[in-house]
Task: structure prediction
Amino acid sequence: MSSIHKIDLFDFRLENAAVKRWIPLYYQYFGQPVGTAPVVLVNHALTGNSQVTGENGWWKSLIGSGAVIDTDYYTVIAFNIPGNGYDGNPDNLILNYTDFTTKDIAAIFWEGLESLGIQKLFAVIGGSLGGGIAWEMAFLKPLQIENLIPIATDWKATDWLIANVLVQDKILNNSENPIHDARLHAMLLYRTPLSLNKKFNREQNDPNKEYKVEGWLLHHGEKLKNRFQLASYKLMNHLLKTIGEASHCGSFLQFGKETTAHIHLVAVDSDYFFTVDQNRETYEILKRVHTNVYYHEIQSIHGHDAFLIEFEQLNTLLQKIFITAKQKIQ
Result:
């Protein structure tokens, strides 16, 4: 496992004009030393962290020695969203979570990269919330990312997403068992009726006659409750609704005209969270003004979580981007 490192950021001004005197930014890096190879930034999703590869890596099927994002050829960096609790220090949790936006997190990540001497990225990739932050990073510096790869996300939060964030926030602030109960609701957004029906087929667990789908949901609630902090969940959930909050269609089109990035949109055909029609619309808008934009679609019954399940399809989609660059290095 790569060690967790820390960058101290001082006097950071948020979008709402509040100034944070100190923000600790924790990160891990994998593969080649910084400054010796192309840099791939991996942004984690709502309950994720910087452990993207290795034995417990949540994207180890994509990242590692000999993998499609090959740590023998790339420097892979993953920041922890400040306040996600992965450093284990309760003093670093963020209680005033509504102060922060995804644009703030994107600016924090750029400051972290610059403190490491990194001005340009070969790629920034992330799923869900991590992909939303990738969009925000591109909006801030449209000339400094070679490959933008947002997966199971979009450049803006929709009304549907904002509505579900509100429901999650109400559960988190009013339930007697907040993380557990919020997770039960969230899992139904991350999966699909077809996925659950095929997995459980109305079967029950003996002897208590509990339906297997109920046991599965309760298990996920307990699992997250035991490893995640309430303040962290409130912050990450809130950040989802702020994706693209500072942008509008006109500014998005202007970004498309200005950016030099190759933009690879990766949607999931059954995604209930960031719907496929929104991704297709984004592609249609961008291709009017930007030459190097590509649309990819994962076929899956599993919904939003397919970006954490359908590794074979993701590997196939990403090979052309990363293996071509690796061949140039060789």
In short: DSSP finds ten helices and twelve strands in the chain. Residues 160-239 form a domain with the Rna Polymerase Sigma Factor; Chain: A fold (CATH 1.10.1740.110). The CA atoms of residues 12 and 79 lie 17 Å apart. The mean pLDDT is 95.
